[in-house]
Structure to design on (138 residues):
């Protein structure tokens, strides 16, 4: 056996190796779940600003921010702007478009073939125009 053979075997995809007769929910005509979980009647909706493709984060372009990203344990006291938050939410969980009659969302990130409701919750501490608390992005 070659030196790297066990590693190479481990790295090979076996996603197509299903048991005989196995069918996916889609093949079984099970309807897609709702695009998002329902909101309660007492929920206050907050409209985020439209994404500005030229928005800068701390006066740097998005590529520069992502490229120089590092884990840090010290945080600036500067608040995040509502525009910056809107861009970050879109980049990490945003819907680019809805296909069909609210059938599937095309997102900025993988979502298991749109077979599950996609939920994003955030704990807000220091964002302009938002009271600190827990929010759900829909």
């Amino acid at each position: 056996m070659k030196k790297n053979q066990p590693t190479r075997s481990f790295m090979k995809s076996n996603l197509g190796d299903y048991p005989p007769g196995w069918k996916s929910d889609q093949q079984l005509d099970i309807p897609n779940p709702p695009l998002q979980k329902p909101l309660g009647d007492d929920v206050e909706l907050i409209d985020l600003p439209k994404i500005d493709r030229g928005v800068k984060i701390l006066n740097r372009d998005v590529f520069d921010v992502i490229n120089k990203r590092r884990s840090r344990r010290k945080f600036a006291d500067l608040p995040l702007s509502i525009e910056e938050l809107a861009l970050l939410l879109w980049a990490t969980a945003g819907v680019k478009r809805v296909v069909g009659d609210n059938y599937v969302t095309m997102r900025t990130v993988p979502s298991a073939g749109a077979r599950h409701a996609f939920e994003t919750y955030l704990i807000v501490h220091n964002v302009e125009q938002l009271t600190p608390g827990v929010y759900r992005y829909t």
About this structure: Strands lie at 95-99, 104-107, 120-124, 133-137.
